[in-house]
What we know:
Elements: E1 2-5, H1 11-16, E2 20-23, H2 33-50, E3 55-58, H3 60-73, E4 77-81, H4 93-105, E5 111-114, H5 117-125, E6 134-136, E7 158-163, H6 172-184, E8 189-194, H7 207-216, E9 220-221, H8 228-233, E10 237-240, H9 249-256, E11 261-264, H10 269-272, E12 279-282, H11 287-298, H12 302-319, H13 322-342
Parallel strand pairs: 1-2, 3-4, 4-5, 5-6, 7-8, 7-10, 8-9, 10-11, 11-12
Helix pairs in contact: 2-3, 3-4, 6-11, 9-12
Amino acid sequence: MIGICPVDEYTPLLGKAGITCYPISMENKGSNPFKDLALLMQLYKIYKSTKPDVILQFTIKPNIYGSIAAGLLGIPVINNVSGLGTVFLHDNLVSGIAIRLYRFAFRFPEKVFFQNEDDRALFLQKKIVRAEITEVIPGSGVDLNKFRQREFKRNSPFVFLMVARLLYDKGVVEYAEAGKILKEKGTDVILKLLGSPDTESKLGIPLTLLEEWKAKGYIHYGGFSNNIGGEMRNADAVVLPSYREGTPRTLLEAAALGIPLIATNVPGCREVVVNEKNGFLCAARDAGSLVVQMEKMLGLNDMELSTMGIQSREIAATKFDQDIVFNKYMNTIAAIETTTNMK
């Protein structure tokens, strides 16, 4: 088994898991045609030299350029559209180019998995992919043994936690605005925010704005954390006011821990949050709507809050167990191998 990815602090973990890692240079953002062509050539060379039986790809650029490279070499490909990213949230030249690239590249895969039905429907509506090779899976799944039901304890003051990349499209501004509204009302509450700043993207929240929110007491920003599970266990509710998601891992892990949730009523989020059962749904891009749902959560008594957390765990266990996702991958790989052997 091989893995292909940019080198970071997590790369050594692949080696420990018995995966041979091939490093590549890849910009997650941007649409420089020369850099994208270089990525295509990198993937082509690795695929040609390693001769994998099947390739499983994630995220926009590997899905596009990896599919083209594999198609040129006749290697079967499985793609996972783990989210639409910011491309489909903005109607501009970049999004138009991305759709055309998707449409060309997605002629090659044997299978394309989506993490929610809305994303699948959008790709079909735009004629990017053939319906017969698509399937919806429950996100990336969640490890129910690692993220076990926590013991209930209510904090005083009440603690909300948001974990996300610090992008406008994640709803970070709305979260901070909600903190401002609650502070001005004199509500005894803490809004924690964790995540890495994105200083390269125009969609990243400026550090100066984060510092301003901190100074005014709207949020408690803790930067990046390697212990997200521990941070979540110490929160009363996890919040994600994102504009659109695939199936957000933040919400899956929080649900598995048995934590009440608040998220926007958008694709990806509403798959995990069942309104009034394991959390509350608010309108996207609307801090006032978010505040209403946060105040609802604050108004729950201990029994109601505990029950909501138990229902979060139940949803995670029945719909989002990572074994469901693994079995889908393995069954698809087996079917591809059977078809290949018959040729």
